[in-house]
Design brief:
The chain has about 130 residues and is α+β, with helices and mostly antiparallel strands. It is about 25% helix and about 25% strand. The protein is flat and about 60 Å long.
């Protein structure tokens, strides 16, 4: 009987947590659209922008699933960002760095503050 009550409580808690996160947006389930039709004639050219891709770095300290980040105090250099398709919160540096050494310096600062599991992620930025 206790086991049944425990299973009911766990399933109810999991269901309630999943409902709190909300449903995934429709674009998470849709396949990406393509530009034009294959083999089509007179397709308009894709727009061109005067941007240059550059490599930048961020420091991530946590990925939270089933946890609201508002319950935890974070270092002022960090921000929690929600990814609706994965239904997770990513806690990472507010700023991205063009220089990896600056990201490593922030990572060291965060490790001294108690974020021992931090790591550096690469991203592509456009200037």
């Amino acid at each position: 009987m206790r086991l049944l009550a425990l299973l009911f409580f766990i399933s109810f808690t999991t269901f309630a947590t999943a409902q709190d996160a909300g449903p995934k947006p429709s674009y998470c389930e849709e396949a990406p659209t393509t530009y034009g039709t294959p083999g089509g004639d007179n397709m308009p050219a894709l727009p061109k922008f005067a941007t240059t891709p550059t490599k930048e770095y961020k420091v991530q300290v946590a990925i939270l699933r089933y946890t609201d980040p508002s319950e935890y105090p974070f270092h002022p250099s960090l921000v929690a960002r929600y990814r609706p398709c994965e239904q997770v919160w990513v806690v990472e540096s507010r700023q991205s760095f063009a220089n990896r050494e600056e990201a490593v310096a922030l990572q060291d600062t965060l490790q001294q503050a108690g974020y021992s599991g931090s790591y550096i992620t690469d991203l592509v930025a456009y200037q």
